[in-house]
Each structure stands twice: as C-alpha cells, then as structure tokens.
Amino acid sequence: MPSAPSSKPRILTGDTPTGQLHLGHYVGSVKRRVELQSTHECFFIIANMHAFTTRAEEPQEVRRDCLEIVRDHLAMGIDPARSSTFLQTEVPAIAELTYLFAMLLPFNRVMRNPTLKDEIRDRKLGDRYSFGFPLYAVGQTADILAFRAHSVPVGLDQVAHIELTREVARRFNQIYCGVSDQAPDEEHVTLGGVFPIPLADVGKVGRLVGVDGKMKMSKQLNNAIFISDTPEEVRKKIAKIYTGRQSLTEPGDPGNALFQYVETFIEDPQRVDQLKDRYARGDNIGDGHIKQEVAEAVNRLLAPMRERRAAYEGDDDGIMDILLAGCQRANEVAEKTLARAKEVAGLKFFDRTLRIDR
Known about the structure:
- The protein is mainly alpha-helical.
- The protein has helices at about 25-35, 50-55, 60-75, 90-100, 105-110, 115-120, 130-145, 160-175, 230-240, 255-265, 270-280, 285-310, 315-345, and strands at about 10-15, 40-45, 85, 150-155, 200.
- The chain folds into two domains: about 10-205 and about 315-345, HUPs (Rossmann fold); about 230-310, Tyrosyl-Transfer RNA Synthetase (Orthogonal Bundle), CATH 1.10.240.
- It starts with 9 loop residues before the first strand and ends in a 14-residue tail after the last helix.
C-alpha cells in the first residue's frame, strides 16, 4: 500500500559506496542526518551507479560496499523506522531525470564545478576519466530533485554540487513552469514550479582533516578512522597527526589539525579552552598528551557504534530487507516527481506503475 504523504520538510542525502564510512562522514553529514530524523522526512541514497564512474570494473566490490554502508548507517544511528535508505539503481526515475537535466546544463558549466575538478586532481585521473564521470555531477542534481528535497545535509566539499542543483531547479521551473527568473527561491513552488530550490545543510564540521594532518579524511588517502577500528587502532592513528611542534614549552598553534579533533570530539568546552590556552602558551603540555585525550574521546564516541555494527555483521538478509523497504518508498515519491516533470515538459504520454520485489 502507498505510504501516507508526510507533512514534514524533506531531506535527501547519501553516500557513494567506496568502502566503509569514517569519522569524517559522521561529523560532516551523518550526525546531522541522525538529528533530523525526528523532524524531517528523510531519504538516504546509496549512490551505487555513481560508484561506477571510477569502479565500473569492480561490480562485486561495489555491491559489497552498498551493504557495508547500510551497516555503518545503522551503527551511526540511522533508524530505518524513521527514514528510508535506498539504492540509486533501483529508482529509475533518477536516471530519466538525469538525462533531462543534462539538456539544461552547458557542458562547460558542469566542468567548472570545483568539487569535480578537485576529484579529477586528487584521483590523478588526468584526461582518462569516463564520460560518466562528469555526468555524475548532473546525476547528483537528479538524486536530490527526484525527491523534491528542501535541504541536503552535506560536508563542505559537496556544497558546489548543491549549487548546481539549485541552478537546475531554477532553470527547469523557469522554462517549463513559467516561473519568473526574478522570483525568490523560496517562492518557486507556490508560483507553480515543480521543484523547490534546496539548501545545503553543512554540519558543524564541514571538513575533517585526516590523520595525516593535511588532507581531508579519505579512505583513498589512507588517512581515515573507521567506526570498525579497534580502540588500539584509533590510538595509533591519532598518534600520527602531524603538528610540526618540537617541545613541551614551545608555543603551539591551536588552529592546527590536532585541535580540530580537540574541538570536534572533546565534549567539555571548558576543557577545550584550557587545552587551547596551555598549548598556545607552551605551558608544559605535549602533543602526545593531547592525542591521548583525543583518542579516549573518539573511542567513547565509537564504542556504541562498534557494538551496533557488530549486531548486523553477516546479516545480509536483514540489510536487504531495509533496502527493499527504502527502495519501495523512494519509488513512490520519485515516480510522482518524474510524472509531474514529464507532464510540464510535454514528455508524458501515458501513466505507468512501478513495482520492485526480492
């Protein structure tokens, strides 16, 4: 039976399956998702087709990583009773909207996307990337707009994708719905637009530095802390954070990578201020002591996550049931959006129904 429509504002966000999630994902986006489950209608996409932009020759690994990400979601506090987690490839409306939206964006505009340019550089792709690689930037606009999301919880590096989505939504509403190009974003739907203009909802920590102390935390850069890491592995990784400081009495920079961890994971604000003050003055406090305190705080955070994740290890059937329910709900919403979009664009000729089962 179709679900009753929700009166809550809707969010859409998610992850590309490139392996297990890490602390950077949690503080940058997932923590915010957990908070919003009580107040918003939440859709969380596993973007498995986007994974094929760089891993098309690893289909079984991508499939495995889809299930691992759901385990991480559950461990981090995502509740399948209050949200819908679904697979991108099981919602065909997304692919249709991607094709339509690609007609509304100049190629040069897509390639100017700074996040896309950074990924080409960081992955050392040169000019060897597939045609589908830049297309995924358009696909992300379809991921979001298929659900007519009001906001998108993301890390700082994804804000450029949200801006591209906002451009597509405005252009579609102007061309096909007659919304004025002078209309305020918040009035597009009331003026007849199909798509709301979504906002980026950046977490408190928009970009967590990895344990190398330099680059954004990333599995590919081997500088990540995973929720499945043991307490000892966490301690060893945090011990690697480089600050450049030489002695206990040398004034340090409380703006360095180590202190991002202090501010993010030590919950007592008075203790944070005390550590920053002593560090800045060189008051006989070493990096090693601070790293130990940070590791203890991170392990306190991760302990219940490890426990929850362990409960789902090996339970692929349970994970598949969660995904099936999420995909069914996602298709209810996305098919309605697609039908509206095709109708105003003159592309709808017949009604269709869509059903998925295991």
